[in-house]
Design a protein that fits this description.
Main location: cytoplasm
GO molecular function: metal ion binding
Strand order of the largest sheet: 1-6-5
Strand content: 15-25%
Keywords: Cytoplasm, Iron, Metal-binding, Nucleus, Zinc
Pfam families: DnaJ, Zn_ribbon_CSL
Radius of gyration: 15 Å
Helix content: 25-40%
Bound molecules: zinc ion
InterPro entries: DnaJ_domain, DPH3/4-like, DPH_MB_dom, DPH_MB_sf, EF_Hand_1_Ca_BS, J_dom_sf
Largest sheet: 3 strands, mixed
Number of domains: 2
Number of strands: 6
Length: about 150
């Protein structure tokens, strides 16, 4: 099983020094080279790449993941394969924070949150994987470009 760093194309030794910018660039490059419409030999699934980015682009989740990696215990992160699928319309919208949210079974009423910049990062795919802030549940949210066009 590849680590999230490997999924985004980083070698396993140097991940401590990788910046968020580098993660964003690697994410876009990984999506491009594995996009089902643009490459017939894409080896990684878009879900894997998104899951990697969802963790590594979030400082809190990334450090938890780094700790899990050190304990070679990162298989727990493959749970997103069983995520439930929702539409962006199914989530509630918070006008003040300009973000969408949904409650999680663990009791966190805003366990799943997504903001506009995350949507924009994933506009090509039209879906995004989100992990609960408090537990290991994942949901997949599908959206279309015009869902948030009124905000721009
Ligand atoms: Zn939860």
């Amino acid at each position: 099983m590849k680590t999230y760093y490997e999924i985004l194309g980083f070698s396993s030794e140097d991940h401590k020094t990788i910046t968020l910018d580098e993660i964003k660039k690697a994410y876009r490059a990984a999506l491009l080279s594995n996009h089902p419409d643009k490459s017939r030999n894409g080896k990684l699934s878009v879900d894997d790449i998104q899951a990697a980015y969802a963790i590594l682009s979030n400082q809190h989740k990334r450090s938890a993941y780094d700790q899990a990696l050190q304990g070679s215990n990162y298989q727990i992160y493959s749970k997103q394969e069983h995520s439930e699928v929702y539409d962006l319309d199914d989530l509630e919208y918070d006008e003040k924070l300009n973000e969408w949210f949904m409650g999680c079974r663990c009791g966190n009423k805003k366990g799943f949150t997504v903001n506009e910049s995350i949507l924009e990062d994933n506009i090509d795919i039209g879906e995004i994987l989100i992990q609960c802030l408090d537990c290991s549940n994942w949901i997949k949210v599908q959206f279309q470009e015009n869902d948030h066009a009124h905000l721009e």
